[in-house]
């Protein structure tokens, strides 16, 4: 087939024969670029990533809009935890945690983790009035019975603003890291082998810094996890100890209250760790470009000027469009902090990142999901229906009617099921080719074109949306 195609081209155009025989790789990439250019021009060849919205009814509770995804009943399907209830996938049947499990607040993010080491996922969160760290014990499959409540410890001053579970010191044992606002700062406690007694949780202070968001990652490439709490980088030193570094922020920003959901990741594709910081009490979001190395400096860049809402509390991070880089799922919260833009229309969206591979260069594209929903504090990104792409799940903040959207309270869990874009068909055969992100590699490495040269004209070339922008960077 390839020979006959070349013969036909030769009879019609000798110049085209020369292009295909000596620069086949350039011809192939040009086809992909043209297809995606047409898609961006509205022709629809590459297709647009689309989502189908599904709402799950909840019982009213005091919720900070916290939703987590994990296999709670061990049947191999992802489930959703939201406040006092969980939804059993794939049919999303709602189950309560028990007769009166208390108010499972999600300000500091509920975590799904096997606290007692018995092989199933428990829920680690906190209660309010008074604030207490706690965990709820999974009763075991089918996990529909009462979940026993266990107290970890009482927060005697301030309130919790973030927590995570990570092996911070590299000893192979996970630790609970907590952040408290106007309290004891950042603390750590190794997950005890017997977690059912409060006395077994031994907390030690890492920093007295008050914060409003928590992230863990190696910012200075020394192999040790560091901590970001709002606009402060807390560096873990060799042999123990911590050094504090301020991170640049806007002049009008309020340190320790600017963000609730920081991210540590290589955003521009240059190999070092940058930061993404949505603003909790003002408009917009920023990313901070790292200079790299053992003593990085950070340069502040605004993300999507005048396109992002105020009260960007809620954010989740993951590869939403399947192109190998980090995207953002977020929206405006409804919290009544008297912040600028508090009464603006609802805004839920996802942000596509397009790294360039060059330090300081990344393109951001906002995709609207809803102008009817208000985002909660901790949404999630996960493949909920097992089709290989990422779905989005969220819940708004709701306080039994205290902070609600008129005319009625909005408590439902909302899922946006993703439908992956179509493919550009070069013919009728069903044999798939590579994703276009691999074409970028092949275009830079012309000797690695054996697979492309072996394709016939009938082969199908799968092209993710917005690929033209990615390959041209």
Can you offer a commentary on this structure?
- The structure is a single chain.
- This protein has 473 residues and is mainly β.
- 12% of the residues lie in helices and 33% in strands.
- It contains 6 helices and 32 strands.
- The strands form 9 sheets. Strands 1-30-28-27 form a 4-stranded antiparallel beta sheet, with no helix packed on it. Strands 3-4-5-6 form a 4-stranded antiparallel beta sheet, with no helix packed on it.
- Mean pLDDT is 75; it is low at 1-47, 400-408 and 422-473.
Distance between termini? 34 Å
- Could you say which overall geometry the principal axes of the C-alpha atoms support? globular
**Helical region count?**
6
Structural class: mainly beta
Average of per-residue pLDDT values? 75
DSSP, total strands = 32
Residues in helices, as a percent range: 10-25%
Question: Nearest-angstrom radius of gyration?
Answer: 25 Å
Low-confidence stretches: 1-47, 400-408, 422-473
């Amino acid at each position: 087939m390839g020979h006959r195609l070349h013969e036909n081209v030769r009879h019609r155009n000798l110049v085209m024969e020369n292009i295909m025989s000596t620069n086949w790789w350039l011809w192939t990439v040009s086809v992909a670029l043209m297809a995606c250019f047409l898609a961006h021009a509205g022709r629809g060849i590459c297709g647009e990533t689309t989502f189908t919205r599904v709402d799950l009814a909840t019982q009213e509770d005091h919720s900070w809009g916290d939703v987590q995804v994990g296999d709670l009943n061990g049947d191999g399907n992802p489930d959703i935890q939201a406040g006092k209830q969980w939804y059993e996938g794939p049919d999303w049947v709602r189950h309560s945690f028990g007769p009166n499990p208390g108010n499972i607040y999600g300000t500091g993010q509920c975590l799904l983790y096997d606290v007692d080491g018995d092989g199933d996922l428990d829920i680690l969160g906190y209660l309010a009035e008074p604030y207490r760290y706690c965990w709820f014990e999974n009763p075991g499959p089918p996990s529909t019975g009462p979940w026993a409540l266990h107290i970890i410890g009482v927060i005697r001053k301030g309130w919790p603003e973030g927590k995570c579970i990570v092996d911070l010191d590299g000893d192979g044992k996970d630790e609970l890291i907590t952040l408290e606002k106007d309290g004891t700062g950042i603390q750590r406690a190794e997950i005890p082998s017997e977690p059912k007694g409060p006395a077994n949780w031994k907390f030690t202070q890492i920093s007295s810094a008050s914060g409003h968001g928590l992230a863990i990652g190696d910012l200075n490439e020394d192999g040790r996890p560091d901590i970001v709490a709002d606009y402060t980088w807390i560096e873990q030193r060799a042999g123990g100890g911590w050094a504090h570094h301020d991170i640049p922020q806007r002049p009008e920003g309020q340190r320790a209250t600017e963000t609730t959901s920081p991210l540590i990741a290589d955003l521009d594709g240059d190999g070092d760790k940058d930061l993404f910081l949505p603003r909790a009490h003002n408009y917009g979001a920023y990313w901070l470009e790292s200079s790299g190395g053992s003593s990085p400096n950070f340069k502040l860049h605004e993300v999507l000027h005048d396109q992002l809402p105020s009260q960007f509390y809620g954010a989740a991070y993951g590869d939403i469009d399947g192109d190998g880089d980090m995207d953002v799922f977020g929206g405006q919260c409804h919290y009544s902090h008297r912040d600028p833009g508090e009464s603006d229309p609802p805004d839920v969206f996802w942000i596509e990142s397009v790294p360039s591979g060059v330090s300081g260069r990344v393109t951001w594209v906002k995709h609207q999901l809803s102008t009817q929903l208000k985002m909660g504090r901790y949404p999630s990104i996960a493949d909920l229906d097992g089709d290989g792409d990422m779905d989005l799940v969220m819940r708004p903040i709701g306080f039994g009617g205290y902070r609600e959207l008129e005319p009625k309270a909005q408590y439902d869990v909302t899922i946006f099921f993703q439908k992956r874009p179509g493919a550009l068909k070069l013919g009728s055969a069903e044999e798939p080719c590579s994703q276009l992100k691999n074409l970028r590699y092949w275009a830079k490495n012309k000797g690695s074109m054996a697979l492309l040269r072996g394709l016939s004209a009938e082969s199908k070339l799968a092209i993710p949306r917005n690929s033209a922008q990615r390959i041209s960077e």
